[in-house]
Amino acid sequence: MSNAILNPHVSVDCVIFGFSRDTLRLLLIRRTVPNAITELDDSYYALPGDLVNDSEDLHQAAGRVLHELTGLQGIYLQQFQAFGDPGRISKPKDRNWLQGVRQDPDARVITVAYMALIDSQKVQLQPGSFSKEAVWIPIDEIPELAFDHNDIYESALAALRERIQIQPIAFELLPEKFTMADLQSLYETILQRGLDKRNFRRKMLNSGIILPLTEKQHGVSNKPARYYSYNRQLMQNADSQYINLRMEGSFTLFQ
Amino acid sequence: MSNAILNPHVSVDCVIFGFSRDTLRLLLIRRTVPNAITELDDSYYALPGDLVNDSEDLHQAAGRVLHELTGLQGIYLQQFQAFGDPGRISKPKDRNWLQGVRQDPDARVITVAYMALIDSQKVQLQPGSFSKEAVWIPIDEIPELAFDHNDIYESALAALRERIQIQPIAFELLPEKFTMADLQSLYETILQRGLDKRNFRRKMLNSGIILPLTEKQHGVSNKPARYYSYNRQLMQNADSQYINLRMEGSFTLFQ
Q1: Of A243, B67, B73, B113, which is least surrounded by CB within 10 A?
Q2: 3-state secondary structure B136-158
Q3: How many other C-beta atoms are found inside a 10 Å radius of the C-beta of residue B45?
């Protein structure tokens, strides 16, 4: 934490997605509640976030939170929504935690939420001073979170589902080289439904956004799968980052 | 203006689009600068906006601004981005105006921007106490605006371009009944390029989101065009509001 002046009314929160072993995970921090009455009450989970410094803009603040927690810089980080319900800080646990840390629990805080996508193999978790523990939790096991963080996470997931079908951002969740099966598993996990293997393969190859590598999987005796990489150069040179990756039978109403 | 307590650090701003006579317009308010030195300096344009009341959430605040200005309720109003550059209130004109109105010009204000789409024929402009004049200005004649409002408007237009191709929202800008030519003109104006007439017609009809009416244009001697209406009921009953309205040769990179 730096010593800059924090604006008591505006915060940023980061919904950080990672993908490994066919599972989409969320990076959460475990908060310690001071003077907890029962053991059950002594900790709970929250999205990583902080107040915004007076000298930084919103994106910088989100980048700072992300960097302090993961040690990473220059990763996919995108604002997706601001949350300002007047009752968003009302649960006794939240007020208790705020009182123990630094803030007037009656101050209204509006938060600007960011979505980050990272290759979780790259991350070296660096729990900050305000978090007891940082953990990856599979998205089907997300517990009750602090404040309105469950709402924020649900909105982020909905936004992610939409965006992977119009922008080539899902690759941020994969290692540099991946198989077609890895990529399809990622799409299926985020969209939460199965996709036809042949159509998926054709759509991805026709789009030009992935490049086949000569390398194949090691240590697989029978039919080793080819590796692919994301065609980052093509996308950087392009005029636009929009792309049609809508999956058939997806949540698109009409084809 | 109500007498509720305004949070001095968070505002909402509304980018209000209207469409008439084949022109996309923005609803702006003209601000009067107190103690202006020259005549040229005595007024300038800004997006309609206000500080957020302590008792309202962000969407309510944006709805209030919109209602006070237009008398309308229940129209398309969608948050699209928060803006928090520390230098966003630095122009002498802006600081002068703020000093004359109510605020400490040194207080940092983060603004949450909303996009509104309205059928401009429905609007009865109701200039509020803080605006000298409310006017519709064609988007190719937008002057220098207050604060970072040019950036906010540009971001709104980019978001609108994307969204009309994945959600049936463009209809909010049209009257209840419209011709196919009206609809195509609207898409062409927003996308800023021509579209093939036959493909456009086929795409719209195949999507099922518009319904042909029996009524045709009046007072047109030769080939009166058929009227259509937006299939609002179908869309309300649908599980999802996403739809594939991507236009060929548009800013989509790959088909």
Answers
A1: B73
A2: EEEHHHCCCECCCHHHHHHHHHH
A3: 19
Identify the three-state secondary structure at position B123: coil
Of A10, A108, A206, the CB nearest to B84: A10
Give yes or no for a contact between B193 and B185, defined as CB atoms under 8 angstroms apart: no
Residue A25, strand partner residues: A18, A138
Delimiting residues of CATH 1.10.10.10 domain(s) in chain A = 177-237
What number is the ipTM of this complex? 0.86
Integer Cα distance of A255 and A206 in angstroms: 18
Q: What is the dotted CATH code of the domain comprising B6-163?
A: 3.90.79.10
Task: Please tell me which of the candidates B10, B54, B253 has its beta carbon nearest to residue A242.
Answer: B253
**Range(s) within chain A of domains with CATH label 3.90.79.10:** 6-163
Strand partners, B28: B135
Using one digit for the tens of pLDDT, what is the confidence trace for B65-90? 999 888 888 889 999 999 999 988 88
**Residues A72, A40: Cα–Cα separation, whole Å:** 33
* pTM across the whole model: 0.88
Q: Using an 8 Å Cβ cutoff, are B76 and B164 in contact? A: no
Q: B67 is written with which tokens?
A: 């209602």
Q: Using an 8 Å CB-CB cutoff, list chain A residues near B10.
A: 9-10, 84, 110
The boundaries of every CATH 1.10.10.10 domain in chain B are: 172-237
Q: What is the pLDDT of residues A184-201, one digit of tens each?
A: 999 999 998 889 999 899
Classified by CATH at the fold level, domain A177-237 comes out as Arc Repressor Mutant, subunit A (1.10.10)
